[in-house]
Amino acid sequence: MKQFVSLVVAALLGSIITLVANQYVNKNQNGNVRIEHVNGVPAAQVAYRVNEKGETVALDFTGTAEKVTAAVVHIKSSATERAITRERDIDDPFRFFFGPQSPMQQGPSQSTGSGVIINADGYIVTNNHVVKDADVVEVTLSDNRSFKAEVIGTDPDTDLAVIKINQKGLPFLSFVDSDKARVGEWVLAVGNPFNLNSTVTAGIISAKGRNINIINSSNRQGRNGEEAGRTAIESFIQTDAAINPGNSGGALVNLDGGLLGINTAIASPTGAYSGYGFAVPSDIVSKVVEDLLAYGTVQRGWLGVEVRNVDSDLVKQEDLSVNEGAYINGFGDAEDKSAAKAAGIKPGDVVVKIDEVPIKSSTGLIEYVGRKRPGDKLTLTVDRKGKELNISVTLKNRAGNLNTIKREEKDAVASLGLELEDVDAKALKKIDLENGVKVKALEKGKVSKYTEMREGFIITRIDNKKINSVKEANAILRAKKPGDLITFEGVYPDYPIEKVFALRY
């Protein structure tokens, strides 16, 4: 029994000693635990770059982003309400009691995009499609101040526009030479996608000189709007920096904050970013901006040729001696106005250089010539059946001369786009009308923009006033002020239902 008690006491003493020892050890260990906070960034950077001074510096976007976002603005464009045509039987008895029925109207249409301040005095460059046909353009700065903007000029051929707000001392971006930008170079895209202000994305230049046939510009000739051929100038910088709807008109910059281009389009099956965006190069932008500010319209030199890329199929087909360049297909319909033909260029020639600048594709030729003005002289190096020739060409304008093109100024009536002609009494009687004037032609203007009126429409009343002659119609229209409602009543000769078109002047 004594032995058993001794064993129990010994076990208890051992347990007590073990517990005390563990507590002592744990107490000392817990007292040595520390949580360390490391200030700053790791010493080793993921990547480096060479700055404009030739110095190797850590890759860092923060300084550039801060500088650039202050010069990129949000743009909201609004167009006045569009009128829906109302039809009415010409024998409607209620017409004489109540007059014209009020047209049904849709709400104002709006579009949004981005813009880049390029001058401290409030000049902003953006895309033409951001402000096209807008009646009101509103600019919101990065500090949330908003201003109404004036459209200074547009260039559909490059999808560029210049607008201005009445402010001074604004932050702005300077142009850099886009020709010196290299594939693989880091760039930032800054804009307002999905109305998310001051968004910055990073990527690299993945290609240059891209032509994606997205600018469907053409020169209108004649009263019926026949197209005289595609005149768009596309030589985009391609980037994998994320660009989405709303980025249009925003900045593509290098890591020093220099403006390399104006973001314009994306390649996407869904309408959202899918990998590639496209920007108009700064060398084209600066030329367009200078012309719009100086002349109100772009002074574009024309070579007067139809060109195509040289590829392996064309090399075999035409037995060419070169594998790249711009192949001269011909001179188009305006052969007599072609500067190239006058200088001695022939179909079948391949342009391989202009002013010693290598031309590797038709896009390269179009871009280079698109930066020039009428009267500028170029030296084209062409391959003609294996022989290299240097040919001097003096560029012309589209009219075939060296004159400066002036912006067309339209009076109040012309801005509607209506060309009217008188209709004799016999012709009116055949369609059971006592009075009216005929819409001879519809040019680009407010009538074609806001109504579905077609050529041949007989206008019998304007604002419920009988119209007997073109002189009477013009007098009523010239008296209109911005914002006034205009109603046109009339019929089509082959459709005896009266139509009413309405729009805001």
Could you explain how this protein is built, in words?
- It is a single chain.
- With 505 residues, the chain is α+β, with helices and mostly antiparallel strands.
- The chain has four domains: 62-164, Thrombin, subunit H (Beta Barrel), CATH 2.40.10.10; 178-295, Thrombin, subunit H; 306-394, Pdz3 Domain (Roll); 414-504, Roll (Pdz3 Domain), CATH 2.30.42.10.
- Helix content is 20%, strand content 33%.
- It has eleven helices and 29 strands.
- It has helices spanning 2-31, 62-69, 95-98, 128-131, 282-295, 312-318, 339-343, 362-370, 425-430, 446-450, 470-478, and strands spanning 48-50, 56-58, 72-79, 86-89, 109-117, 123-127, 136-140, 146-155, 160-164, 186-191, 199-210, 218-221, 226-230, 236-239, 251-253, 259-267, 276-281, 306-309, 326-330, 350-354, 357-358, 377-384, 387-394, 418-422, 437-442, 458-462, 465-466, 485-492, 495-504.
- The strands form six sheets. Strands 4, 24, 25, 26, 27, 28 and 29 form a seven-stranded antiparallel sheet that branches. A six-stranded antiparallel β-barrel has the order 3-5-6-9-8-7.
- Strand 20 and strand 21 (357-358) form a beta hairpin.
- It is globular and about 80 Å long.
- Mean pLDDT is 82; it is low at 27-45, 88-105 and 217-229.
